[in-house]
């Protein structure tokens, strides 16, 4: 019975399909074509390649974008592309639904071996299946373009956030405006979703950490972290106070060692404490990547902040005022006690915010809010501290208490910090938040590096002075083992201290040049620096602050290091050697000249100048040398020759072109010669090379004191000779070897000329010795009744005159 009813039903269905075939064909030619083929062949087939081309162009533009304006335009273009792709996908969805409905009417294709369909039905089904496949592919491509555009928009936002760290001349709006505070009172939906997602991951990790299988370990780690963070430094401080007076020798090394220990103990205890807390989560097997990364960044941020706090505590040394390194009065140190801790706390809290923004990919507004608030609190801290110090100093003066002797360097540091804080505040009020952030982290990093440098230099110098001190145990061992005297120990202490300070200065210079200028977070201040900056607005000028500040720092640090090294060589090291004064002066001058050349080369390199691009400078210099600079270059080269060959040196008595005096200084271009009347003659270096120069003191030359006297013809030469020799031999400056001598120079009508010669230690005392000898010889001649030759006269009698006229002298 069922088969009987089934056969008529199949025949009826087949008849219905045959009757509906023309209608379906018409629908396919009209409505179906307009609904499927027109969008596919006209709109989708042309719109999809256009959308893909727009996406590819945006990716190319993003790779070359640098300014905030460009990033903003690309973000809007990516969002518009995503919206266009969504619209196209929405437009294609009804067509796909309609085609699917028509396929449902036709039904599935019959199985092989059953009833066959007409060719028209088979063709219609194939067309509909092809349309469905094409529409499905187009919709998937459109959705892929939409997803790609949205991902590109997120990437552009991240690049824009990164660019804000380098585009310091970008006006993003004042902190007094509502847009700055919008992330706090009206957060972005995407930001809320991202932070909510991160919070749920932290909550899941926390729940898992206190699950029964992990609870015991989490409790132990948390307890150890709290004990170490709260009591760790105090526990370490007590045994150190007992060890220092007993194990270390008396002297300044105790205080520098204690300061270094305080810094390290504060940094390590707080760092290990937070590291234990982070390990509570990172040891779990199901902890998310975000939580693991955040825990690692939190530990690094803790070490950075703890180092700042430790340095402040160590330098202020309120627990041990008598061992304080800088000369700060106790009331001032107590006034400043809370500021290093507050500064480290601000850096830690807002460093966390900035790390979270980077981790979850927060919006630019949220990033600017975190940067601006961090810069604001740091600036306020740096402004309030000097104000309170000045107020306390005025109070101490009013009460008659003695304040510390302020040095120029301390006043300069005070002024720089205050001015920098004011600059940060002005930048925030005007709206240059990236600039405020840039200056803030520059201030933090430079202050941190210089504080560490100050502490470590004291430690190194005090360590070597204590190690090589003759009275310490180590100094006695070195002295007896190497059989050296106290002078050698002092020389070794000076030399090793200088080597240590030089190494520290080089490390500090590298840290300043590589760890500043636009780092993202306090953590990245410990790493290398990135990129070249672009700008907008003020903005209109494409400035490169990294290169400029690098060059300034290199110039200032290089000049300071060279000046300190020259002073150390001239005053500390070389005087302890066996070199003569001229050799020491030549070495110092040569070292200074070479140092200036190196500083100039390093400064040019810091500016980003490549030497292969300096051909035009060389050409200009060659032309300038050919016309007007040849004398300067000649004198410069001559100065180098004088310092290396040393035909003359500082301290020599020379005579050149009728000028005789002592060389006081050999400069790059000219040499200073001091005359006997204390005046100075500037002689170009080239003249000392090209002209004949008499060096009276070269090779420790002796001076010659010669006096020529004219006596009457009736004297006894032997008596006079003996008298002159007695006068010379009696003078303390006349050397015994070679002995003084008297020579018979001339016998003439006017008398006898005798010349007496004696040698002295230095040509510089010839004039004074000769003057003393003349006084003594005249006195001895008068006592012996011997006179010098008198002037002869002639009387001429005029013819016819009885008067005599005065004759001329003959």
Automatic annotation (TrEMBL):
Transmembrane annotation, as ranges: 218-236, 257-281, 301-320, 332-353, 359-387, 408-433, 445-468, 489-513, 543-562, 583-602
Membrane topology: Multi-pass membrane protein
Residue ranges constituting the Mechanosensitive ion channel MscS C-terminal domain according to the UniProt record: 709-787
Keyword Coiled coil: yes
Entry-linked Pfam families: DUF3772, MS_channel_1st, MS_channel_2nd, MS_channel_3rd
Domain of life assignment: Bacteria
Entry keywords, A to Z: Cell membrane, Coiled coil, Membrane, Signal, Transmembrane, Transmembrane helix
Coiled coil spans: 41-68
Compartments reported by the entry: Cell membrane
Domain DUF3772 intervals: 140-201
Domain Mechanosensitive ion channel transmembrane helices 2/3: 589-630
Main location: membrane
Protein's UniProt name: Mechanosensitive ion channel family protein
């Amino acid at each position: 019975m069922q088969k009987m009813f089934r056969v008529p039903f199949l025949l009826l269905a087949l008849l219905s399909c045959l009757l509906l075939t023309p209608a379906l064909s018409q629908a396919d030619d009209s409505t179906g074509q307009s609904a499927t083929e027109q969008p596919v062949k006209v709109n989708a087939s042309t719109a999809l390649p256009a959308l893909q081309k727009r996406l590819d162009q945006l990716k190319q533009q993003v790779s070359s974008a640098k300014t905030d304006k460009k990033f903003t335009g690309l973000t809007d273009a990516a969002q518009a592309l995503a919206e266009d792709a969504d619209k196209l996908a929405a437009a294609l969805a009804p067509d796909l639904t309609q085609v699917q409905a028509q396929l449902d009417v036709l039904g599935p294709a019959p199985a092989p071996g059953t009833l066959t369909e007409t060719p028209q039905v088979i063709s219609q089904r194939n067309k509909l299946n092809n349309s469905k496949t094409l529409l499905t592919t187009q919709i998937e491509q459109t959705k892929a373009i939409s997803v790609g555009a949205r991902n590109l928009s997120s990437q552009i936002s991240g690049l824009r956030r990164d660019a804000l760290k380098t585009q310091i001349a970008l006006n993003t709006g004042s902190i007094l405006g509502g847009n700055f505070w919008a992330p706090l009172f009206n957060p972005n939906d995407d930001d809320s979703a991202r932070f909510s997602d991160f919070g749920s991951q932290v909550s899941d990790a926390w729940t898992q950490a206190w699950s029964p299988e992990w609870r015991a370990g989490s409790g132990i780690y948390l307890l150890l972290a709290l004990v170490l963070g709260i009591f760790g430094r105090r526990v370490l401080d007590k045994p150190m106070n007992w060890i220092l007076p007993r194990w270390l020798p008396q002297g300044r090394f105790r205080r520098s060692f204690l300061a270094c220990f305080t810094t390290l103990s504060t940094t390590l205890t707080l760092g290990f404490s937070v590291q234990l807390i982070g390990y509570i989560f990172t040891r779990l097997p199901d902890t998310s990547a975000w939580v693991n990364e955040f825990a690692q960044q939190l530990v690094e941020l803790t070490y950075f902040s703890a180092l700042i706090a430790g340095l402040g505590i160590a330098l202020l040394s309120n627990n041990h005022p008598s061992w304080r390194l800088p000369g700060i009065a106790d009331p001032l140190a107590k006034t400043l006690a809370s500021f290093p801790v507050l500064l480290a706390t601000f850096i830690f809290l807002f460093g966390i915010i900035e790390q979270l923004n980077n981790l979850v990919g927060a919006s630019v507004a949220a990033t600017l809010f975190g940067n601006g608030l961090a810069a604001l609190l740091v600036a306020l801290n740096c402004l309030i501290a000097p104000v309170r110090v000045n107020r306390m100093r005025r109070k101490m003066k009013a009460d008659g208490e003695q304040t510390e002797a302020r040095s120029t360097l301390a006043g300069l540091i005070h002024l720089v910090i205050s001015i920098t804080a004011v600059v940060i505040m002005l930048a925030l009020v005007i709206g240059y938040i990236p600039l405020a952030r840039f200056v803030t982290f520059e201030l933090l990093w430079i202050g941190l590096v210089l504080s560490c440098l100050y502490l470590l230099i004291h430690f190194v110098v005090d360590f070597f002075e204590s190690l090589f001190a003759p009275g310490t145990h180590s100094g006695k061992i070195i002295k007896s083992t190497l059989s050296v005297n106290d002078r050698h120990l002092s020389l070794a202490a000076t030399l090793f201290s200088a080597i240590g300070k030089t190494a520290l200065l080089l490390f500090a210079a590298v840290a300043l040049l590589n760890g500043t200028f636009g780092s993202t977070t306090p953590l990245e201040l410990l790493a290398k620096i990135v990129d070249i900056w672009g700008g907008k607005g003020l903005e209109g000028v494409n400035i490169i602050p990294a290169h400029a500040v690098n060059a300034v720092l290199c110039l200032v640090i290089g000049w300071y290091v060279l000046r300190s090294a020259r002073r150390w060589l001239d005053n500390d090291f070389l005087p302890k050697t066996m070199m003569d004064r001229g050799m020491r002066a030549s070495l110092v001058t040569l070292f200074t000249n070479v140092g200036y050349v190196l500083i100039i080369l390093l400064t040019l390199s810091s500016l980003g100048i490549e030497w292969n691009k300096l051909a035009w400078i060389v050409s200009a210099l060659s032309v300038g040398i050919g016309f007007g600079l040849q004398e300067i270059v000649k004198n410069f080269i001559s100065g180098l020759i004088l310092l290396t060959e040393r035909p003359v040196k500082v301290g020599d008595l020379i005579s050149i072109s009728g000028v005789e005096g002592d060389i006081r200084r050999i400069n790059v271009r000219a040499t200073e010669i001091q005359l006997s009347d204390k005046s100075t003659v500037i002689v170009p270096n080239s003249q000392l090379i090209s002209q004949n120069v008499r060096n009276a003191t070269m090779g420790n030359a002796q001076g010659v004191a010669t006096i020529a006297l004219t006596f009457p013809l009736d004297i006894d030469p032997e008596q006079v000779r003996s008298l002159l020799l007695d006068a010379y031999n009696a003078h303390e400056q006349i050397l015994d070897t070679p002995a003084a001598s008297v020579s018979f120079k001339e016998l003439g009508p006017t008398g006898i000329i005798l010349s007496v010669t004696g040698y002295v230690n230095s040509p510089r005392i010839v004039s004074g010795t000769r003057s003393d000898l003349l006084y003594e010889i005249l006195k001895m001649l008068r006592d012996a009744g011997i006179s010098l030759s008198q002037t002869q006269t002639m009387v001429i009698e005029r013819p016819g005159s009885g008067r005599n006229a005065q004759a001329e002298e003959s």
